Amino acid sequence: MPFIRNTWYAAAWSKEITRQMLARTIANEKIVFYRTEAGGVAAIEDRCPHRFVPLHLGRLEGDIVECAYHGLCFDPSGACTLNPHGDGKIPRAARVKSYKVVEKYNVAWLWFGEAELADEGLIADFSIMTDPRFCTVSSYLHVRAGYQLISDNLLDLSHGQYIHPMFKNAEGPPHFEPEKNPSDNEVWARFSRPNQYPNKYFQMLGYPADQRGDHRNFMRWSTPSLLLLDVGMTGVGRPVEEGLSIPTSHLLTPETDLTTHYFWAMSRDFRQDEVALSEELLRVGVAVFDDEDKPVIEAQQIAIDTSELMALNPVLLQTDGPAVRARRIVDAKLQAER
Ligand code: FES
Ligand SMILES: [Fe+2]
């Protein structure tokens, strides 16, 4: 399966990249990441060109990686800087690929495409994750399913009523509002529950259980598969600024055709200093995403095996509109890159 090249992939949380080498496969490419002495991010192919031993098994000395097997050394540009054998001449083929990485919003973003097109301005806006008015907790999970199945899940939040006891509401599935003016790069999936009692989640966050309110779940999708959920609850008919707001970021990065790196974060603009609430939110996130969404999506992947979902002619419901549009945008970009 091909992946879009000219786009930014979330490769890691910035905090994951340290002086300890991090091996991670992204879009079928094996890469080793590490922090340089100057504090930047190095990302090079995780495979020595000599006998193909993974470079992350070697040693990091300054900014140089020494291969564990016979000691060839590589710098962050992928160039071989030392051949300790024979006359020490460096064979022309002794180099590895290096990747462009930038850090923004506490995420290391990786670019596979043409260097001259690598514009940081193209990274979708996740400034909420570093906004000082919000307190953000973040985590990671690994999913044995293609990234688009997870993006489908996040673009159709009607599933919350069935999979997630915390999000279930006595009044049934949420109201879905089809997009009026769709754009070519972004998809919005707007689900709302006007004038309803809060679900268990909002009760946990402090919304009074006996008070009706307007609950919104507005998901924004950007390429390749970066989603930001504007989720909050406010008094009936009241402006959103008055209520609780807990925007949630979901960054999906294909690892292989059938596995995905799933980075998520919850940012809140209330009770920011409460460490116990931060811990509780992390616990809830794991309970919801790891224990409830993940098994269903992985079972779905097993059921469709390696088939392309749309090629199986799935039944389409009204709430599938955003997921289908996101898939079309990905297909169009792949087509354009061919
Ligand atoms: S495999 Fe890396 S130096 Fe031999
Ligand atoms: Fe879910």
Notes on the protein architecture:
The protein is an alpha+beta fold. It folds into two domains: 8-121, Rieske Iron-sulfur Protein; 124-337, Naphthalene 1,2-dioxygenase Alpha Subunit, Chain A, domain 1 (Alpha-Beta Complex), CATH 3.90.380. It contains five helices and 18 strands. The protein has helices spanning 147-155, 160-163, 200-205, 275-304, 321-337, and strands spanning 8-13, 22-26, 29-35, 41-45, 59-61, 64-66, 73-74, 80-82, 100-104, 107-111, 135-143, 175-177, 186-196, 213-222, 226-235, 244-245, 248-256, 259-268. The strands form four sheets. Strands 11, 12, 13, 14, 15, 16, 17 and 18 form an eight-stranded antiparallel beta sheet that branches. A four-stranded antiparallel beta sheet has the order 5-6-7-8, with no helix packed on it. It has a three-stranded antiparallel beta sheet with strand order 1-10-9, with no helix packed on it. A hairpin with a 2-residue loop joins strand 5 and strand 6. Helix 1 (147-155) runs antiparallel to helix 5 (321-337). The longest helix has 30 residues, at 275-304. It is elongated, with a radius of gyration of 22 Å. It starts with 7 loop residues before the first strand and ends with a helix. Residues 48, 50-51, 53, 67, 69-72 line the site of FE2/S2 (inorganic) cluster.
